[in-house]
């Protein structure tokens, strides 16, 4: 496989690129007087952010990944210094959610405790979860009511951080707030809009994913049944696919799977009705279907995940076909999130790795789009409506280097026949066996 410029990209090249990106990432850290480390969303920002989506909490997992991958204790030491900052921030932030708040901090601190034996991180995780519990109003924690910023994510995060009771407390309100539809149920992602979002990050499928995971792990059949009703509504929304793949519109024999972002369209002037990444597209839908497959042992979910993959691989991704199409390299909305699913399929032997396969194509595209200099490597996303359109490189998980590097390191291991497991398992991405 070669870059657009004609340069062949090897597995060693991808590993070297990841190491350069780690150098840029660690160089962007802010050091406090006590030696703790934190990261801003962008290097030019004045303040650091603690959150999982775009701050320090989302950077620690890639440090743990690098420590495992390279065997270099310097990465573990950096993760410990960053965890010290998170422990300081547990009491300061106002948000309690998984991706934007305190639950995400608790989950990462628990991982540092488990992997590096840091008792202070464990104590801070306990304190964070206790604060989350104390701020529950009986139904929700804030405006958002979904996976990234609301109950579903808090339930997932609490479950993986070792607090199953809090996990159940978080997701039980979905039993009484579900809106019945002709095909199942759905939920409002916030109370001040008529739009109903459908996919994993902010939509009903993400809520169904959390209900299924918490229900299965705690023996709550009512939660699992509600998850299946939410998934049934989502599946019924699939659009007819045009022949040969691509975006929805004309009917045809294509076996793919694609659902609109929302109904009616949320923020239509800003958001396209169809996308293909983890957040609002089939790359994320497939992760929910993988989870439902594992929970129910029903092969229908595997078939749906395969249909999602067909749509992704026939969509044109990762080519930038037109302004606004695939302008993102990141884990949430871009190429790294698709690479995560591609590597899951390699690990599960659904699409064995080959140098001309789709996983290598994605890694090659990321290599071609990296900026590399004496500071290291990093990626810029594009906003085609702005001038200049290239955005400042970001640091964290969702849109930045941390999320990209984590997937590149796993890709390298898989391509070499190594362990497909992450050092830190993301709560909405089902783990694969060793």
Helices, strands, pairings?
Blueprint: H1 11-27, E1 30-31, E2 37-38, H2 56-70, H3 73-89, H4 102-116, H5 119-134, H6 151-160, H7 164-171, H8 173-177, E3 179-180, E4 185-186, E5 196-197, H9 204-218, H10 221-236, E6 262-263, H11 282-296, H12 299-313, H13 335-347, H14 358-369, E7 371-373, E8 376-378, H15 401-415
Antiparallel strand pairs: 1-2, 3-4, 5-6, 7-8
Helix pairs in contact: 1-15, 2-3, 2-4, 2-15, 3-4, 3-5, 4-5, 4-6, 6-7, 6-9, 7-9, 9-10, 9-11, 11-12, 13-14, 13-15
Write a concise keyword list for the protein shown above:
434 residues; mainly alpha; two-stranded antiparallel ribbon; 15 helices; 47% helix; 4% strand; globular
How do the strands line up in the largest sheet?
1-2
Rg estimate, integer Å = 20 Å
Low-confidence stretches: 245-251
Large-scale geometry? globular
Along the chain, the helix and strand elements come as HEEHHHHHHHEEEHHEHHHHEEH
Helical fraction = 40-55%
How many DSSP H or I helices? 15
Structural features, described:
This protein has 434 residues and is mainly alpha-helical. It has 15 helices and 8 strands. It has helices at residues 11-27, 56-70, 73-89, 102-116, 119-134, 151-160, 164-171, 173-177, 204-218, 221-236, 282-296, 299-313, 335-347, 358-369, 401-415, and strands at 30-31, 37-38, 179-180, 185-186, 196-197, 262-263, 371-373, 376-378. A two-stranded antiparallel sheet has the order 1-2. Strands 3-4 form a two-stranded antiparallel sheet. Strands 5-6 form a two-stranded antiparallel ribbon. α11 (282-296) packs antiparallel against α12 (299-313). The longest helix has 17 residues, at 11-27. The radius of gyration is 20 Å and the shape is globular. The two termini are 27 Å apart.
């Amino acid at each position: 496989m070669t870059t657009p410029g004609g340069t062949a990209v090897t597995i060693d090249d991808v590993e070297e690129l990841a190491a350069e990106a780690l150098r840029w990432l660690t160089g962007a850290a802010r050091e406090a007087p006590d030696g703790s480390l934190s990261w801003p969303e962008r290097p030019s920002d004045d303040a650091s952010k603690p959150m999982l989506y775009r701050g320090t909490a989302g950077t620690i997992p890639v440090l743990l990944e690098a420590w495992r991958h390279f065997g270099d204790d310097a990465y573990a030491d950096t993760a410990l210094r960053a965890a010290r900052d998170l422990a300081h921030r547990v009491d300061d932030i106002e948000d309690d959610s998984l991706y934007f708040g305190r639950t995400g901090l608790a989950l990462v601190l628990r991982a540092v405790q488990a992997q590096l034996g840091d008792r202070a991180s464990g104590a801070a995780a306990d304190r964070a979860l206790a604060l989350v519990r104390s701020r529950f109003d009986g139904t929700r924690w804030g405006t958002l009511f979904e996976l990234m910023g609301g109950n579903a994510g808090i339930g997932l995060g609490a479950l993986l951080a070792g607090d199953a009771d809090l996990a159940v407390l978080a997701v039980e309100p979905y039993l009484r707030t579900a809106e019945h539809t002709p095909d199942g149920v759905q939920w409002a992602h916030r109370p001040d809009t008529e739009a109903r979002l459908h996919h994993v990050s902010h939509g009903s499928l993400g809520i169904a994913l959390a209900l299924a995971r918490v229900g299965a792990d705690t023996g709550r059949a009512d939660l699992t049944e509600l998850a299946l009703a939410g998934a049934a509504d989502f599946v019924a929304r699939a659009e007819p696919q045009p022949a040969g793949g691509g975006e929805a519109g004309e009917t045809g024999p294509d076996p793919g799977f694609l659902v609109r972002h929302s109904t009616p369209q949320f923020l239509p002037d800003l958001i396209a009705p169809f996308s293909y990444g983890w957040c609002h597209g089939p790359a994320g839908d497939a992760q929910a279907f993988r989870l439902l497959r594992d929970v129910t042992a029903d092969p229908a979910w595997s078939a749906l995940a395969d249909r999602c993959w067909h749509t992704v691989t026939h969509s044109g991704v990762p080519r930038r076909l037109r302004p606004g199409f695939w302008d993102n390299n990141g884990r949430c909305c871009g190429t790294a999130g698709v690479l995560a699913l591609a590597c899951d399929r390699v690990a599960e032997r659904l699409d064995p790795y080959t140098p001309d396969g789709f996983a290598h194509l994605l890694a090659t595209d990321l290599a071609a789009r990296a900026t590399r200099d004496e500071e290291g490597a990093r990626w810029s996303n594009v906003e085609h409506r702005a001038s200049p359109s290239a955005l400042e490189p970001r640091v964290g998980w969702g849109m930045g280097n941390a999320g990209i590097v984590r997937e590149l390191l796993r890709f390298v291991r898989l391509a070499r026949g190594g362990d497909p497991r992450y050092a830190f398992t993301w709560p909405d991405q089902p783990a694969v066996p060793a």
